[in-house]
Amino acid sequence: MEEEQHEIVIVGAGIAGLATAVALKVVGLPCLVLERSPELRAAGAALTLSSNAWRALEVLGVAHKLTPLYPAINRSTITDLSNGSVKVVPFSQNNSGDTGIRSVHRKGLLEALAEELQPGTIRFSSRIISIDQNSSSSSTTLHLDDGSVIKAKVVIGCDGVHSVVARWLGLSNPVHSGRSAIRGLAVLPEGHDIKDGVLQYVGDGKRAGLAPLNDKELYWYITHIADEREKDMTAEPALIMKEVTENLGKGLPPEFQTALLNVDGATISWAPLLFRVPWGILLGRINRGGVAVAGDAMHPMTPEIGQGGCVALEDAVVLGRCLGQAKRSGGQFAAGVESYARERRWRAAWVVAAAYLSGWVQQGGSEGVCRPVAKWFRRSIYYRYVHPWIVESIRGFDCGELPAAE
């Protein structure tokens, strides 16, 4: 089969992959996006995007399509299930033009990004089976399962937690956090009363939450200590809901029970929470020549501060800027990839570490002596001092602008 030649190939049409393709279009660099699924994947149902993500979406020219659909979230109300205490954490805005925090449909975000791309940019049902790099010709060869061969000057792996590109680079495998998450959407035809805030509930080994997407839909989640039984349930929505209603959902307040009674079964997922250890990002090879990783392929993280998708959008803008500048400097794309890696390595490692710490504390630490200490720290110090500092410092990040196409 004849080889195809492309300047830039992106592996994966998730948030990082599509956003990177849009960023490259803005700077005037065409690309091909290879997606192994037959259509856009929307696993996870919804996600919450903070100010740093909305700044990236504004740079990409996409924010205006989403903000009218999803109201801003102004606060988080956190209830300690063990003693009933309640803390209200306001979400401050960094400036008058700050879009704030909003929960969005994952599918809606993917479609908004995909609409910006030229027809044919995304090639579905395209799975990579091997990668070769020719240092003498500064090109990378991708072999696909249908026998086709694609050569590119730049390959960006945006292919998720179990990334083929990350494995080829030699990055360490993501590790299990010891926690798992069940997620879904609840659709209430008569509407709900959770208008401008997120409701969170924390207890021993469990954290749950409700986030409004609009007047009738709620994104809900339960994170918990991992259980061996979940291996037999992850692909069975009915079994997942049985476990939620009979076990994990017990003790949660009436508004959460109402959401569970109105679940859209097609949106339910149960998955282990994996992350790449921060030193693996700092010391590992996240790029080689014209090959690099972005999004979950580089920095899978636990969801406690809601930054997985946000940081992926930052990656896209930085990648677009670095490759756009490389184009202006005579097409030295490997140097552009290296510049991207330098800029993103520390930021990604810090957010992964902050997310893990946040989850460990909010779910009450681990079994044994750590648990009482973690509970005391959560009640007395974490929500008062540490959590606000972490989330505001992360949400206040500005990924910068993109150079205009020449």
From TrEMBL:
<dbReference type="InterPro" id="IPR044560">
    <property type="entry name" value="MOase"/>
</dbReference>
<dbReference type="GO" id="GO:0071949">
    <property type="term" value="F:FAD binding"/>
</dbReference>
<dbReference type="GO" id="GO:0004497">
    <property type="term" value="F:monooxygenase activity"/>
</dbReference>
<feature type="domain" description="FAD-binding">
    <location>
        <begin position="7"/>
        <end position="353"/>
    </location>
</feature>
<keyword id="KW-0560">Oxidoreductase</keyword>
<dbReference type="InterPro" id="IPR036188">
    <property type="entry name" value="FAD/NAD-bd_sf"/>
</dbReference>
<protein>
    <recommendedName>
        <fullName>FAD-binding domain-containing protein</fullName>
    </recommendedName>
</protein>
<dbReference type="Pfam" id="PF01494">
    <property type="entry name" value="FAD_binding_3"/>
</dbReference>
<dbReference type="InterPro" id="IPR002938">
    <property type="entry name" value="FAD-bd"/>
</dbReference>
<comment type="similarity">
    <text>Belongs to the 3-hydroxybenzoate 6-hydroxylase family.</text>
</comment>
<keyword id="KW-0503">Monooxygenase</keyword>
